[in-house]
Amino acid sequence: MSKPTNIPFHSPSISDKERDYLLECLATRKLSGDGGFTKRCHDWLKANLETPHALLTHSCTAALEMAALLADLKPGDEVIMPSYTFVSTANAVALRQAVPVFIDVREDTLNIDETEIEAAITPKTKAICAVHYAGVAAEMDTILKIARKHNLLVIEDAAQGLMASYKGRALGTIGDFGAISFHETKNIVSGEGGALLIQDDKLALRAEIIREKGTNRSQFFRGQIDKYTWVDIGSSYLPSDLLSALLLAQLERAREITDKRLAIWDHYRKGLQEFADAKLIRLQTIPTECRHNAHIFYLLLPDLETRSALIEGLKAEGIQAPFHYVPLHSSPGGKKFGRVSPRVGAGSNSSVGGSLPVTDAVSDRLVRLPLFAELEHSERVLDIAKRFLKTLSTKGVNYRSPLDT
Question: Which of 179, 235, 266, 298 has the fewest CB atoms below 10 angstroms from its CB?
Fold first, then answer.
């Protein structure tokens, strides 16, 4: 019997265009940051995302760190964010000796629960960080309204959000700052890479300086000053122009790549809807005001034991289907550098090290199915998942809301 085909969780979409642009970049012998391909990527992002300022960085982590610098975070300042996110969201804040304040996520989108934000605001609060999980927008109108009321900045962690939107606006362009990722695991990739989107002209000028090691080098090359010098704090956040060459090809193919991913996402959704209708699992919710980008297809199982069994069952068939984040609030770093805000109506029971019930539950129940543009075996993944899920109905195991347990 032949071994089953191994199906990875992700694989980047690479065409001749990526190879051609890389060779073209090599031929220029301009390989460091801010070369011709970097500038073309900036132009693409500004035009297609309708944002006034876009700067490529060597990672989304770098973009978030730049946002923290631009927000002028000081020791003891607080930034409200979901616990269900990647560590870079919190690290950018902790590096400024500010405090990540963790609140729960919504059960339907796994985005920051906007109804719990105001209860987390203190005199030390400086910003709100909204993470657009799985390329589905957080409830930005409410978040912006709260931010304006309390004079707070809004940082969008749109690492997973390129080619997705909220009420027609590209993710990352709605708040004061937006951070995008081009890591190999994302939809549009450069291996490693990111971008910072900025709405304010003065902050954009400072961002250029921070990105260029604290110097006004960019102004010098534009002929605006006769020599450049050290004027502010900063670091080296530029990507190589080689990576930008790869990225430009990806950006120019972004619609094609996204459409292929959406087709697979829709195929999974239709195939598993019967199990959601039977309340054996819960599937991702896409609010009507959101246009998603098929970054992730996930399902939520009844409990950790069932989730682990599905992952192992898929693994036995050569299919890689991982879970996702370990909540930051319960991690050693989260306990050391951050704190949990009291939940609405929870009194003092949700203080440091406290529980965030939705976050804790989804972390144990979520599994992601393979999803990438050139995936040829989505039907096989679906068949094996459905075979497993059919056994749940015979065991009397049902999905229950974590707020009901």
Answer: 266
